[in-house]
Amino acid sequence: MHFFNTRLAQFYRLCLLYSFYVNIIVFLVLPSVLSVTVKVDSSTDSIKYEKESEWKLSLKSSKEIPNNDLTGAVIEYIKPLMPFQRIKIDITDIPTDVRFLLVEVHSYLNSVTLSYNLDTDDKSSYVTGTDIGLVKYTNSLLYTEPVTLYLSNDNNFNITVLLAVTTYHKDDPVPGGCNMEFETEIAPYLKLNVTNSVITVNSQPGLMPGRVMFGNSDCQIPPHTLLNYEFYHLYLPEKDFSEETYFNSVKSMIGVHRILENGKKVASTLEGPVNKKIFSNYVGTGSVIAVLIHAIVTNPQDIIIRNNHFITSAAYVPALTYGCSPLHFTYSCEIFSSSYSELIDINLFIIGLFLCFFGHIYFKMEMFLNGALASGTVACFIFLTSQFLTIQETGIVVAVISFIGGFIWLKIWSKFGVPIFSVLLPLLNLGFLVSAWLYYFFSDSYSVQPLIQSDINFWLAFNCGILSISLLFITKTQDASILSNSFIGSYLIILPFDQILGSNMKYIVINIYRRAVVDKFCYAIIDPPFQITDLVLLIVWKVLLISGYITQKTLLRGKPPFPPPDHHFSNRNNRYRIVSNILPEQGNSEEVAPILSADSTSIPQYT
After folding, report:
1. Would you give the DSSP letter of residue 25?
2. Gyration radius (Cα) of the chain, Å
3. Which of 273, 232, 101 lies closest to 174, judged by CA?
4. Helix/strand/coil for 324
5. What is the pLDDT of residue 439?
6. I need a surface site. Which of 432, 525, 544, 574 has the fewest CB within 10 A?
7. Largest CA distance in the chain
8. CA 56, CA 515: separation in Å to the nearest integer?
9. Would you put residue 349 in left (φ > 0), alpha (ψ -120 to 50) or beta?
10. Upper half-sphere CA count for residue 446 (Cβ side, 13 Å)
11. Which sequence spans correspond to the domains of the chain?
């Protein structure tokens, strides 16, 4: 009993102690926590709407602005932005010979806002995006007052931004100075429209140097008569979505000098606006796109001379795109992101391995696979554009059509058995892939690009390439069959690895599909990224091609070039049965027995 009372007393004391601590927490700690929480929320609102930070940028102390540099000097900073933070940017000590500044901001993945003032209701006073910029004229030629802009982060998380200021002078053209479509009065930035197939780049016409725009009087002169636009681009490493690579790539394309040094100029188009360009989209491979505007000046001083013309230049704000959304990498940055992609890769690898090393040896299977590949390619071109079928349904339809096409081509061989006819379809497949390869790598030549913009010219040249390859090898039937199998099979082998490594060899065929079904793809810049993974896969493709050809030639040594078709055996067996059933009744069977019987005939070892 004493033991029980002792335990009960201990339990009672523990309850009292627990109640004491709970009261302390409820009445002392919790109110303080709540007050801190309210304070944080209120401070967030004040940062967003009232409190401002300030960045002061002095151009006088910068060594990057030589007095005689009239093509634009770049001063850049990388700084963090807190959630819901607004920054006042003051640019001071501007040289007196600077006519205007291009202030640009680049943020990784998430948008920020750059504005002339704090009036958020005036849509012409600010621009929002990841690659944005504004032009700010200086106020006086004798004394330059500070330039003020505002930068805002309306997200609830930190963002790192790249701030760059480029100086331009009175003889330099104003990028986007004759804006007619974008929100701000002067639009030096680019707008990108990204689809699964193309990246459309829009820029606004520039303003001739030395002119002050009153209304649109100076912009009524056709810009292309006095101004010239050039597009450049720079590819990022494939499947590299890191923030460091993003900023390094953008920095290398800010300003005229850096664009000329690091960018690759793309060929001009014969039709369409001079300040608009379409690029083929290589999903998952980042690309920095930049535009230069060149002006012909009548009274130049210390400026660039090109082709006996006096030229000054300015650069638009470069824009970067991955052709997808890295925030949703699994779904949008893979060209084949469905659940069937792995199954497709495995099937392509097995079919390619078989065709590359054993295609002509198992001749019936070769006929079936070539018929299936040809009919499946045509079915893809037709049904992938359908609005009524899902990807899964389209895959089933294409698979059924491929099987039917392969079966029909196999029956044609079994019926006729003409070698020169049986090798025609593999040669057409070979010609298609070779022509697609040539279009992929050489279509952006300055001499070729204008010619193939016409659909008539392109498809005529493409089909001539297919027929030329077929006619070139048609007389060497066995070699043509082996070469076709090795070339196509080796390409199918590397496709799964292309998907895994993130390279772009798959676009050899995809770009032909886009040319056939995508509107205005004839104007697209193909210019594919060719990096280390692409080079490795191209070398592997060549090694597999040679190895497959040699392997098949070695295994077929001493055998007939082609196996006889099925009807050859059946007809000969029927003739033998007729002879064996009728002729023995007319005399001695030993005297009329055929010299070569069906059992003694050596049948070629084809499958």
Report:
1. I
2. 36
3. 101
4. coil
5. 93
6. 574
7. 130
8. 50
9. alpha
10. 4
11. 1-51, 53-329, 338-555, 575-607
For residue 555, give both structure tokens. 């295994």
What SS3 class is residue 67?
coil
- What is 352-408 written as a DSSP string? HHHHHHHTTTSHHHHHHHHHHHHHHHHHHHHHTT-SSS-HHHHHHHHHHHHHHHHHH
Among the listed residues 182, 583, 566, the one whose alpha carbon sits nearest the alpha carbon of residue 412: 566
- Comparing CA positions, the residue from 436, 457, 444, 534 lying closest to residue 231 is 444
| SS3 state of residue 23 | helix
Angle (CA) 238-239-240 rounded to 5° is 90
Neighbours of 211 (CB within 10 A): 15
For residue 596, how many C-alpha atoms fall within 13 Å in the half-sphere facing its CB? 6
What is the spatial distance between Cα 92 and Cα 88, in angstroms, rounded to a whole number? 13
Residues (pLDDT < 50) of the chain are 1-50, 66-71, 213-217, 222-224, 302, 307-308, 569-570, 572-573, 575-587, 589-592, 595, 597-604
Structural contact between residues 242 and 535, judged by C-beta atoms closer than 8 angstroms: no
Residues 71, 313 contacting (CB under 8 angstroms): yes
- Contact (Cβ atoms closer than 8 angstroms) between residue 91 and residue 139: no
The H or E element containing residue 90 is strand 85-92
Q: Which two tokens stand for residue 425?
A: 């379809």
The pLDDT score that the predictor gives to residue 43 is: 35
Residue 102, classed as helix, strand or coil, is: strand
According to the model, what pLDDT value does residue 14 have? Answer: 43
Give the three-state DSSP class for 2.
Answer: helix
- Tell me how far apart the alpha carbons of residues 322 and 283 are, in angstroms, rounded to a whole number: 7
According to DSSP, the residues that pair with 319 across neighbouring strands are: 289
Predicted local confidence at residue 600, as pLDDT: 44
Closest CA to 167 of 190, 192, 147: 147
Please name every residue paired with 150 in a beta bridge, in sequence order, or none if there are none. Answer: 88, 115
